[in-house]
Amino acid sequence: MTSSDFEKLRETSIPSLNLAVQEYRHRATGARHFHLACDDTNNAFLVAFRTVPHDSTGVAHILEHTTLCGSRHFPVRDPFFMMIRRSLNTFMNAFTSSDWTAYPFASQNRKDFDNLLQVYLDAVFFPLLERLDFAQEGHRVEFAVPDDPDSELVRKGVVYNEMKGAMSAPVRRVWQTLQSNIFPTTTYHYNSGGEPKEIPKLSYEQLQAFHRDHYHPSNAVFMTYGNFPVAEHHARIEALALGQFRARALDLEIPKEQRYRTPITVGGRYALDPAENEAEKTHIILGWLLGESADLREAMHAQLLSDVLLDNSASPLRKALETTNLGTAPSELAGLDDDFKEMVFACGLEGSEPGRAQAVERLVLDVLEDVAEHGVPREQVEAVLHQLELSQREIGGGRFPYGLQLMVKALPAVLHGADPVQILDIDPVLAELRRDIENLDFIPSLARKMLLDNNHRVRLTMEPDKTLNARDEAEERAQLAELKASMSEQDKLKVVELAAELKARQERQDDPSVLPKVGLQDIPDTLKIPEGVVRPVEALPATWYDQPTNGLLYEQVVVDLPQLEARLVDRLPLFSECLTEVGCGERDYLQTQAWRAAVSGGISARASVRGDVVDTSRIKGVFAVGSKALLRNQGSMAELLKETFARARFDELARLRELIAQMRAYREAHVTSHGHVLAMTAASAGMGPAGALAQRWSGLEGIRFIKALDDTLENKSELEHLAQDLAAIQSSILQAHPQLLIVSEAKAHGTIHKGVEAQ
Fold first, then answer.
1. Among this protein's residues, is 489 annotated catalytic?
2. Which residues constitute the domain of residue 600?
3. Mean pLDDT of the chain
4. What's the pLDDT score for residue 391?
5. Is the predicted pLDDT of residue 93 greater than 80, yes or no?
6. Measured distance CA(530)–CA(313) in Å, rounded
7. Which pTM was predicted?
8. From 7, 11, 64, 394, the catalytic residue
9. Mean per-residue pLDDT, 250-272
10. 3-state SS, one letter per residue, for 233-298
11. What angle do CA 461, 462, 464 make, to 5 degrees?
12. pLDDT reported for residue 143
C-alpha cells in the first residue's frame, strides 16, 4: 500500500537479485521514486538531480558542498559531519558527477534512517546557502596574514583547493582533456568539478540560481532499497519536502553531441615534478564517441566489445598494449564509460613519447582491423558473457553498501531516459547476446561499426611539463597582485572582515541538539554477526559461512606468513601482484588469463600484516589467495585456486618485465591522488613494525623501491634474480599449513565440498 500522493506505475520482480523494483510518480510535482523492495535490513536512500553546468566554474560541485552547510530546520554550520557522530549509519556521503548530483545514505536502524532522511531532505530542498558558506566552500581571496592588508593576496576555498589537487593528478588531467575534446559542444565539455582557473569566476548569485533551476522536485529522482515499507517512505518524503512544492517546467535535457566528420588529433600538457625525468612520461590516448547509454542493446553491445578487446591479458587489444615497446603500460583510461548520455570508449598507452603517437594509433587500428577481419576465438567471447553474468549476480562489498551499489548503477540510466529494470536485470539481454555470438561475424561487425567506421575519434597526446606548475602559480600570483593593486582601502577592509567572519564562524560552537540523534535505547541489545562452521575438507581445515550470495561462491586459501629474509620481505608485495598475472602449471600467462576469465570472477592475492591489539611490537601476517565464481563453476574455480596457489610459474621473464613496468607506472601516476594515504603511511612508519612494513610495501619507500628495481631489469641477470626470489617466496609459503574460507548459500555447501575434495 502506498500514499495517495504517489501514483504507482509498475512493479517488476528481478529473481536473480531477489528483489522487486517498484516505480512511483509524485502526483503534484512529477518527482520519480524507485523502490527496490527486498529482505535486506541495510536500508538505503538517495535523492538525485540532473545538474547540467554550462561552464567549468564547478557550480554543481560547490553547490553540493554548500547544500550541506545548514538548512531551514537545521541551521548549524556542519550538520552533515555532526550527524556522523549522532547516527548509526552504514554510509553517508554526497557526490557530483558530470551531469547529476546525488545525496545517498544507508542505515539498518529505523529511527536512524528517519533522522538522516529529515536532515538530507531539508538540506537539498531548503538549504540556507549563506554567502559565508559560498566563500568557505567555493572560493575567496584572503591576505596571507588575514588581518594585514599589506601582505600578499591569496586565493582559498575548499572546492578550489580540492580541484587544484585533483587536477594535478596526471590521469585526471588526461581524462578531462580527452572528455573536453570528445564532447566539444555539450555539458560534458566542461569540468563539472571545476577548473581551478575558472572557479573564481563563479558568483554567489549564480550559485543560488543554479539551485533554483536544478534542485526542484520536478527534476528529482528518489531511490530507496531494503525492507522498510514503501508507504512509510512516501509519507515521510511528502511531509518533509514534496508537500511544499508544485510541478514546474524545467528544460534540462542534454542534446546529442555534434559528430566529427573526420577524426581529430589534439595535444595537451600535464604538470610533472621538476625532479622527475620527462622521458617516457607521455600519455597517448584514442577516444571514440559511441551510441546512447539509454539504449540498452547498444550499451550491452558496446560493453561486450570493450571487454572482448580489453578484459584481460589474453584479449587482443590489451595484449598488444601490454607487449608493445611504444609505452610502459596500457592507459588506466582504457575501456567503456557509460555514465554519459552518449558512451565513450578509450584505449592507449602511458609511459610513451610524443613522437610515437602515430605509431600507437596505428597499433590500435591494426588490432581492430584484425578483429574486424578475423574475429576472436569463440571461447573468449563466452568468457566475457560469463563475466557479465557474474557481475550481475554479485552482492559486492567495497565502499558502497549493496543497495547503494544497485541504486548508483541504475541512476544514470534513469536520468538519461533508460529503464532501470533493464539495467538491473540483464539476464534477458545476456540470453540475446548468447544467440548473437552464434554468428561468427557478430564481434567483427561491432568492431567495424562502433570503432573503425566511426569518425568521431580523438587522438590525444599529453606531454609532461616540469614548468607547468610554476607558470600557473606565477600567473595566479600576477593576477592576485593586479587585483590587490586595484583595491581601494575599503575593498581591503572587506577582505579582512570576511576572513574574520569566517574564522569566527569556524570557531563557533553550534548547538547539536537541533539535530536528531539515536540513543542507547535505539541500539539493539545484540549484534548479528555471521558465524562460521568448521568442517574440514579431507585433512584441510575449512570454515564455512552461510550467506545469501545470489548463486555465487567465494573461496580463499589462507596461510600464516612464514619467516622470510629481508630481501624477500621487500618483494612480497610484488609476489602478491604477480602471482595472479603469470602462468600456472602447463599453461602460459595468456592461457591462464583466458582460463580465469572463463571459470571465475577473477582472482586476488594479498599479504596482510597487523600489530597485536595489546602489544604493537608483536605482529602477525597472513597470505591469502581468493576467487569467486558462479556455483556451476565451483569445481573449476577450486582447481584454479589450487593451481594459482601451488603452481604459479615465474619463468616467463618478459611477462615479469611487463608487470613491474606497469606497477611502476601506476604508482608514479597516483602519487598526487594518494598523497594523503602516503602521508599517513609515512607518519605511522615509526609506530611499530606493522607501520614500518606498510611504508616499505606501499608507502614512499615502496615507490622508491619499485622505481629502482624497474631501472635494473633491463639487465637480464637482474630479471632472473627477481624470478628466483619470487619462486623462493612461493616455496616458503607452500611449506605453511593452508586453511580454507568458503562463503555461499548453505544449500550449496555439500556440492562445493565434493568439488573442493575432487581437486
1. no
2. 533-757
3. 93
4. 80
5. yes
6. 37
7. 0.90
8. 64
9. 96
10. HHHHHHHHCHHHCCCCCCCCCCCCCCCCCCCEEEEEEEECCCCCCCCCCEEEEEEEEEEECCCHHH
11. 140
12. 97
